[in-house]
Target: Cucumber peeling cupredoxin-like
Amino acid sequence: MAVETAAFTAVVALLITAAASQTPPTAYSNHTVGGPAGWFFNATKNISATNYSSWAASQTFNLGDFLIFRTNSNQTVIQTYNLTTFQSCSFDDASDNDTVQYNGGDTDFNKPLIIQVPLTIKGSNYFFSDANDGVQCQEGMAFEIQVNTGLGLPPSLNQPPPPPYATPPDSNSAQMPPLMIPQTKDNGSSKTIANSRRELFFIAVMVLLLLC
Model:
């Protein structure tokens, strides 16, 4: 009887814990990747600054949240929804619609960077650094997260992309539209007035001749 009571108590405790963990969020969150360690790779020891998979497992991610990568130009930030791309530690064969390169490396090393990545697609999201020909990813700079619905996408992220930028025409080659000069329709009124004056003149002359 005591064993059954203990088992029942354990089940109830698990249910309460699960219900508490599923409490809906009340606001969007920013997650600093790696916590205080940031997003870095120690090239001397050939290891990542922290265990990013363990860090990700300790977080809860929802649509509309942001990942904040505090890093520098020695690392890259690749986001993909393609498990094959993630496992290969390279986006060379990725499709345009399933992988985003937020930072592709820089010839100016050690340049501080803060990269903000919005979470806009529910489900599995994968992140890695492909610097050093994928060595950083292979040595621990990679993690997977599960994005939940949460509050849903905020209006600022739930908008269609803007139209592509179009270069304005060269001012030297631009042509002004032809100037249209309105045409006045001749209804013959000016001719009518002129003829009437002539007729009045002849009538006046004839009257004078008769009076003389």
About this structure: The CA atoms of residues 138 and 152 lie 33 Å apart. The radius of gyration is 39 Å. The first strand starts at residue 30 and ends at 32. Confidence is low (pLDDT under 50) at residues 5-20.
